[in-house]
Design a protein that fits this description.
Elements (H helix, E strand, L loop, with lengths): L3 E4 L1 H5 L8 H12 L4 E4 L8 H7 L5 E3 L4 E3 L5 E4 L4 H14 L4 E6 L2 E4 L5 H10 L4 E2 L2 H6 L6 E5 L2 H14 L3 E7 L2 E6 L4 H12 L6 E5 L5 H6 L2 E4 L5 H6 L2 E2 L7 H8 L5
Parallel strand pairs: 1-2, 1-12, 2-3, 7-8, 12-13, 13-14
Antiparallel strand pairs: 3-4, 4-5, 6-7, 6-9, 9-11, 10-11
Helix pairs in contact: 2-11
Length: 267
Amino acid sequence: MARIVFSDIDGTLLTDDKRVTEKTEQAVKGLVQQGIPFVLVSARMPEAIYPITEAMGVKIPLISYSGALVLTEEGETLYSLTMKAEHAAAFLEAVEAHFPQATVNYYAGHHWYVKDTSDPRVALEMKITGAVAERRSFADCLTEDTLPHKILLMMEPADCERAERELQALFPALNVVRSAPHLLEIMDASVNKASGIEVMLKHFGLEASDALSFGDNYNDLEMLRYTGASVAMGNAPQPVKAAAGEVTTSNEEDGIYAYLSEHHLIG
């Protein structure tokens, strides 16, 4: 019996058009009412997660930036790990040299910095997440010691795939992973969703064997392998399904609700 539930957001909790279905919301509230913590685990910044929890009417803990920033339900910081200044500077330089077509996003705590807030990719991300980007020089951020929890590159899927391969080889001290065909997430190499879950479990005095996780993409693999029980969404690629203990229906078909009600975790 799961004593805590962890869930990815995009492609898992949310439908493809970024909604929480009625049944998914019912499932989340059903767990919370029983005193089973429901924790969202995402590459998103906190400000891109709060609109979702507020719309559901729940106050829950968050694992943000894929584990680099862990917050209690009251917003207190349990864990925070930024990239080292020299790694961030060298990485940004390499991106400018080899992938000038990328839109670069610099996330530090509760702030999202970009070179141009009118960039169509940035505008779309603001619309999707409800978070607001700020225009700021990345060099200034580094000079002032405002270090990134995450750098996000947006580009065409073929470029994104090549960038993942080439940049990961160039920067072994960083974790470079696609969270969508057009999105490349970069954090310190010690950061992944499992490391964030470990922090949250300690906070609640629980073990990995007490935990259940839901995910749909490659950046969910560590999480799915770490928790005692794990479920891949029906829309997940085959390697992700293979890594999970079980597979539920897709994010379009109330996959979280379907699994929890089938296993009598909610009424």
